[in-house]
Specification:
With 105 residues, the chain is of the alpha+beta class. The chain has a domain of 46 residues. The chain is built from 1 helix and 2 strands; from the N terminus they run H-E-E. It has a two-stranded antiparallel sheet.
Length: 105
């Protein structure tokens, strides 16, 4: 009977030591796991591309101006002039928020 109690106590102690080893291993590896997950998130966001920044904008603009001028001379002659102008602009601009004290008075 005494041997049975010793074996039961021995197996309980072995389980406690095994659980303690597993938990301490997880605690030690916590930093490595955290860095691995953060690296995976960083890689995923880099794959998405450049993020939108309201102060840094890259755009393409096209503006078209059409003008029609009709001229009637007193002799009854009518002349119509039609002109169109198209302008394309592609580039990057930086928006700056100036405080009121930066504005000239």
């Amino acid at each position: 009977m005494r041997q049975l109690r010793c074996r039961k106590g021995q197996s309980t102690l072995e389980y406690a030591i095994l659980i303690a080893v597993v938990i301490s291993g997880l605690i030690i590896m916590q930093g490595y796991i955290k860095r691995g997950v953060q690296g995976r998130f960083r890689s995923s966001t880099d794959d998405i591309g450049e993020q939108y920044s309201p102060g840094q904008v890259t755009s393409a603009f096209t503006s078209t101006t059409r003008r029609q001028t009709t001229e009637t001379v007193s002799g009854g002659t009518t002349r119509t002039d039609v002109s169109a102008q198209t302008q394309h602009r592609t580039g990057q601009e930086t928006l700056t928020d100036l405080a009121s004290e930066d504005w000239p008075e």
